[in-house]
User: Fold these one by one.
Assistant:
Number 1:
Amino acid sequence: MRRAGKITAAARALAGEMVKPGVTTRQIDQAVFHFIRSQDATPSFLHYNGYPASVCVSVNDEIIHGIPGKRVLQEGDIVSVDVGAYIGGFHGDCAATYPCGKVSEEALRLIRVTQQSFFEGLKFAREGYRLSDISAAVQAYVEKNGLSVVREYVGHGIGHNMHEPPEIPNYGNPGHGPRLLRGMTIAVEPMVNAGTVSIIQMADGWTVKTADGKNAAHYENTILITPGDPELLTDPAGSLV
Ligand code: MF3
Ligand code: CO
């Protein structure tokens, strides 16, 4: 899980560095594909339920599961990148939203609140808490900041499979669900809308957008529950070596 997490986090960082005006979403996908293969890992997303790429690249009002293609990134866009890598029988999974060039103050705030909501949830990713304590902390922080938490998509257990039980909603009352125990590996991934909570599913069968056309952001890490502080297996500060 640590090896998979490190490669996945490095792939996210690579994708994030490529978010610049003039770059196509397909270029990001190709770079990430080659990077993951160069690490002797396999892109977890490629061919998952028929998904055609190694990353999801979701721009502006696209919340998740944007399919890379000819789209050219523009100054002012916000770009969510989601990636997974599989090695030694285990998966890593992580995501983040990056500004493309100079973006509005409002867009930056959406990105920051979404990221911080993950870290608010992380405070409860410890033995002695229950699963929905994470969910409730994410929701409380997002809503305190006047933004909306997507309901239809959730975080998940992760290990030999990318998606394992339990589901981890980004909303709910505290004190419910399984008790957290050392050795559990989970992916917590708030998806946050700047406007209303409603989403729409695109005809490509994958892309999910905000119904009101306002921006959305996404932030995800794979986490190991330990006897002490949780370990970020896709540590955004980590390096590959
Ligand atoms: N990365 C998503 C998640 O965080 C899953 C992507 S679905 C795929 O759970 F088809 F794109 F792989
Ligand atoms: Co995930």
Number 2:
Amino acid sequence: TSNIKTTLTIGAIAATLMLAACGGGADVAKGPNSEARTTAFKAMMPNFSSMGKMVKGEEPYEVEKFKTAAAAFAEESKKPFEHFQQDAEGNGDALPAVWERPDDFKAAEDKFHAAVAVLNTAAQSGNLEEIKVAYGDAGASCKACHDTFRRPK
Ligand code: ASC
């Protein structure tokens, strides 16, 4: 009946809008390099989140736990950048700016690695106030790169 048709149509429109709102939905072509990047970026998240909870006071600051997370993050955070080659099968959420402005992208990458290294140094020192500043700077570096080089979410 037309009621069912209307319901199905509204459902399809809603699903399309939701995909569009989330960005990087099923409509974005993801070649193997983009899949490898996504996997490597996601692999960084448990340690970054764990540090974030301690920095924000959502969990107690445990010196050794933080040291381990920061050291692991310093290594994990290098991995996605091994997979930033253009991909004929689709670049996923990476914007053309990554390859159109390689010097800017490299500068943003270097800034991020430097911020992560400072965070790791702060973590190994065990000074929570220093850690808080360094964690904020590392997060700001994540965001700065996303604002310029990643499809808006
Ligand atoms: C995260 C995450 C990012 C950064 C960024 C910090 O947890 O996934 O991309 O922090 O949002 O501003």
Number 3:
Amino acid sequence: MIRSVVRGTGAALPRRIMKNADFEGMVETSDEWIAQRTGIRQRHIAGDDETTASLGEAAARAALANAGLTPDDIDLIVLATSTPNNTFPATAVEIQHRLGMHHGFAFDMQAVCSGFVYAVTTADLYIRGGLARRVLVIGSETFSRILDWSDRSTCVLFGDGAGALVLEAAEGAGTIADRGVLAASLRSDGAHKDKLFVDGGPSTTGTVGHLRMEGREVFKHAVGMITDVIEATFSQAGITAADLDWFVPHQANKRIIDASARKLGIEEQKVVVTVDLHGNTSAASVPLALAVAVADGRIKKGDLVLLEAMGGGFTWGAVLVRW
Ligand code: ACO
């Protein structure tokens, strides 16, 4: 059977780093509060010349270089983002143009923080369905542009950045020993749409709006939803937590990551954590964490890697990949 195998990874971060202490003059908060409640120590914030498209392009170019490929080799670009450059066209199309691609097709996916997990699952289906041979899957966000910088309960949590993977069709035996995407489970439930949302949009206010979140409510649901969808993915693949080499969760809050790993019985040393360095970069958080763990030599060919995310909607999901 056809499998979607990871051929390359890449990442891009804005130049400017904002430390927790930099908030102290802006809102009533402290480095200690932010670090203790979230595990975040710093985040990158996009400058005027840095956008979701420019960061996405840079991450895509890094992933292509890592794969030893050029834009000519790509058939499809799937961009996960909730902070597009424009309401339309899709920012994926702008990235396609920036890469000098005049062939293939490109579109955006919007599942907030779960966007990258949704995008990998979608790209895998396009590959297995024979509609594309090589896909650039990108998560790119500039959440700094939709934050209310006077709201201490949200502005300290998010950052900007982009990460990308190249997925490529390869022949597999149909067992979990294959390399590539092995199992996936996606969920959403719009009953929770008002717990984490942006209070503007083209069809309602005609404005971009600002992020609003009932943090305690999100926290309350997060661990249960994350662990349920991971259990479903494990049972699809016929594995247990002990079979995993790496757990690469959405990087929103270290306490949610720790509680999820504990509940699933995943050992601490198998968990990739970058929330301290990047904050919550929404759809970019999982590919950014992947790029870090691949670059530093932790994730290697043949490793069994579990990706997970949960975000606005609510949306949530998990993907199992043999690297
Ligand atoms: N600095 C200092 N105090 C603060 C800050 C701050 N930055 N923000 C809030 N507080 C205060 C609150 O006002 C509150 O004060 P009060 O007790 O006087 O009312 C107190 O701290 C405690 O607030 P809580 O909200 O109960 O704090 P909690 O321990 O729940 O931590 C947090 C808040 C970090 C937001 C947590 O709830 C959380 O991580 N929630 C989940 C967020 C998340 O994971 N989102 C993921 C999806 S993101 C996406 O999809 C885009």
